[in-house]
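Reminder to self: tokens first, then the designed residues, so the page reads top to bottom the way the pipeline ran.
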């Protein structure tokens, strides 16, 4: 009966027979909630550490990817440059071949002309010797 009168007044006894303002069941639930909250905060803290570690790892991987990307772009540009240089060199060589062919044809014509002149001079010499 005294317990009921105290309960109506908002006072309760716990398992250690100490007077409490909260009911023992509510106090127990509050302590359980406090422990669960602490566990949740610990797990959240651990999760945050894992996330931070993961973000750091991804930043490193992203940096490495960017480096490799830049290397690939550089290699591709170098390859294009070499191809353009090779094409320019091929055009230069083609122009040189054309120039040499023109020079060959000019020298062939000159040679034929010189052969004709030689033949004419030989004929003239033969006629001159025969006339004497």
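Designed residues (132 positions):
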């Amino acid at each position: 009966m005294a317990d009921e009168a105290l309960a109506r007044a908002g006072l309760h006894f716990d398992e250690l027979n100490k007077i409490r303002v909260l009911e023992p069941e509510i106090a127990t639930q509050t302590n359980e909630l406090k422990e669960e909250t602490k566990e949740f905060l610990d797990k959240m803290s651990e999760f945050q550490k894992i996330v931070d570690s993961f973000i750091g790892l991804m930043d490193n991987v992203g940096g490495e990817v960017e480096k490799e990307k830049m290397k690939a772009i550089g290699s591709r540009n170098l390859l294009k440059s070499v191809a353009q240089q090779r094409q320019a060199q091929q055009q230069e060589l083609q122009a040189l071949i054309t120039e040499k062919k023109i020079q060959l044809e000019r020298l062939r014509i000159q040679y034929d002309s010189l052969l004709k002149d030689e033949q004419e001079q030989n004929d003239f010499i033969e006629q001159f010797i025969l006339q004497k």
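The beta strands are 12-13, 19-20.
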